[in-house]
Predict the 3D structure of the following.
Amino acid sequence: MTDDSDIPIRVRPEIAALPAYKQGRQAGADAFKLSSNENPFDPLPGVLEAVQASATAVNRYPDASAGRLRQRLAERYGLDVDAVHIGAGSVSILAQLVQATSGPGDEVIYAWRSFEAYPWLAVVAGASAVQVPLTDDYRHDLDAMAAAITDRTRVVIVCSPNNPTGPIVTQDEFDAFAQKVPSNVLIVLDEAYSEFVTDPAAVDGTRILSARRHPNVVVLRTFSKAFGLAGLRVGYALGHARILDAARTTSIPLSVTAPAEVAALASLDAEEELLERVRAIAERRDRVASGLRDAGWDVPEAQGNFVWLPAHDETLAVAQAFDDAGLIVRPFAGDGIRISIGEEESVEKVLAIAAQAVRDLPSGHRGARAGVQS
Ligand code: PMP
């Protein structure tokens, strides 16, 4: 860090107070990187070839609206092209939606703990972040979120499955919630991990949109996780054209590159093969979650490509034990540890370290299942 205390540039105080974004640590050659919910499989050869072919024209700007991908997704979901918006990662679309709707004096509501970008996005827009605690089983408390809405609320973000804790919101819960939210409040349903969901009761944003039940709902999806394109930055929003137009107005033009668009199209061509990998990751996740529960951890429902260890006050010590064993995990001090589902070879190691760590917890620790801890 440079010492910039003598540079007389005025930084907005709320920006200066924000912690800088902290990326999941990079892993050394013999370590497993289980800290950023990435896809552990290498890119498909066909996808790489498409990217390489598109990279011959990097002296040209890309198509501003990523029109081919937009068209393709519109057809796929049975929506008008105007109901699809492409961004350089779904987080950039979330930023656009918050910018377009919320400013000083406005409120953005979301569950906590959830995706780390939510507070940051609200504050950058100049709005107030309103955090509604998760339930004791690490789920969204949608009744409390509905009750937190005021006449200053502009956006409510619902994350299903919830990053970093794992549980879904059910379709019934979401429908009941959406009924209670005033029609002038935007509901963003962040489904970054939807492809990994195996619980049939889970909310499915694309179904909500085709039924045109709630015009104030925008659904966010990404190619970063299930489709393995995190490094290329491409995600999309589905929703009402007026809302997406407003988001587009706030966007930094031409951020979605041609290689990113082409890779997303090639991935949709190879969807069956990619979804086969997603099924393997989901199966691995279920094995890891049940192994952790058997060892004594009180692991909540895990429906993304990650599991949650509620280590609470012991979080940093437990994360250090993983780190020492060459497993890079993501600690959230005071709350718990998110472990992404990585290579098959990492599974046994994760379970062994976690089993030792649960035995080392102080007796009566909240993260251990009653009666299992020694
Ligand atoms: N939403 C959630 C809940 C996430 O966890 C992430 C990635 N960590 C994103 C959105 C953003 O993904 P991307 O910008 O790569 O599409």
Q: What stands out?
A: The pocket of 4'-deoxy-4'-aminopyridoxal-5'-phosphate is lined by residues 37, 89-91, 115, 159, 163, 190, 192, 222, 224, 230, 235 (CB under 6 Å). The CA atoms of residues 209 and 239 lie 7 Å apart. The domain at 45-269 is CATH 3.40.640.10 (Aspartate Aminotransferase; domain 2).
